[in-house]
Amino acid sequence: MKIYQNSNEPIYKQIASQLREEILFGKLKEGDCLPSIRGLAQDLKISVITTMKAYDELASEGLVTAVAGKGYYVNPQNNEMLKEQYLRELEKNLLAAIDSARIAGLGKDDVINIFSTLWNAE
Amino acid sequence: MLNNRQERITDMKNAIKLENVTKKYKDFTLGEINLEIPCGFSTALIGSNGSGKTTLLDVMCNICGKNSGKITYFDKYTDVDEPDVRNNIGYCAANNFFPLDWTSKKVAYVMELAFSNFKREKFISLCNKMKIDTPDKRKQKKIMKMSDGNKMRLYLAAILARDSKFLILDEPASALDPLMRDMLCDMFREYLAEKEDRTILFSTHNIADMEFVTDYAVFMAAGKVVEKGFVEELKEKYRLIHGSGETLKSLSQYLISYTANSTMFEGICLTEHSSVFQKLDAAIEIPTLQQLSVGILRKAEKDTTEEE
Questions:
Q1: Mind listing the pLDDT tens digit for each residue in B49-101?
Q2: B158-184 as b/e: b if 16+ CB within 10 A
Q3: Using the beta-carbon criterion (under 8 Å), do B189 and A36 form an inter-chain contact?
């Protein structure tokens, strides 16, 4: 895990987004236990409350559940949700591509051509 | 957030709770203090010189008696001399904590007699880690011959070698060099990680060095607590604003405190007011604990001056 201490993004958000990614991409699986709050704080050299806030954020999104006295466990992840996530990501990137095309004065067909070439090259 | 976590980790809510506590000296009055130090976290006591931090810590440990009010330890005891309280509190004063002719060997010997939870092996490993005399070293240096930094290392080793629940440390970082401060922060986190019902309370002037080991912050000015809260919540409550000098004129009433010169100003405001600065060419940031401390203490200082 990497933490930027001088970034504009709060540290708890950086931790939450890295763990979120690990959960959505299946690196952390259903039933897996997240590292203990104090252990992670120790490893990352950050305060306990920051780690706790990151975990609370994941819990409020329904990605993990706090089990009293034990820790945080990864919930079963809905594949539809994951798909939805990718779809949104795709739309966002395509919109950015359209913006670039407009600036460069390219038409829809030009873009589709480029897209096809890239797709086939993959 | 607090309630949530207490349910998860431990039944204990507060390591210490103060209700209407006062301590009067000829020229200084502490309190009334109403304060709870949450169990399981590291709390920083922040304030200017003479704001009453040391007095507060001394009252907590009954180094000096309070004039009024009630103190509750570990949610149930009101007497600091209760064995369960005494044994579980590790207190360290800012200086001359042990007699000056003592050595590492003598410290280990006395601590072992005084506290059943003092672990000699732990003490030795901490001495090695912090590069000071171990109690079994042939040639022992007296405390009076040690540098301030090494004195503090010895005190910290003595305190951390006990299996306690609550550390109360007055300025533990001020005499330490940068590397040792970093190690101190690591040792704090390790102490908290080892057992979940452990708590640390420390005072400091170098909050920037301790930011990443501070969970809860208590700000003091003129003998009173002027602000307190979990750091992550305080960072949501306040915003740091900086911008050009002209911007300030129309909006200074929204700033809790600020400094300004002809070119720029910098101050803090409540997050709910930060949108008024958005319209102008001002930068709005989440404050660091250091910036927050400056903002809050500057406001407290201004208020005190106005009262006088």
A1: 899 999 999 999 988 889 999 999 999 999 988 999 999 999 998 777 899 99
A2: bbbbbbbbbbbbbbbbbbbeeebbebb
A3: no
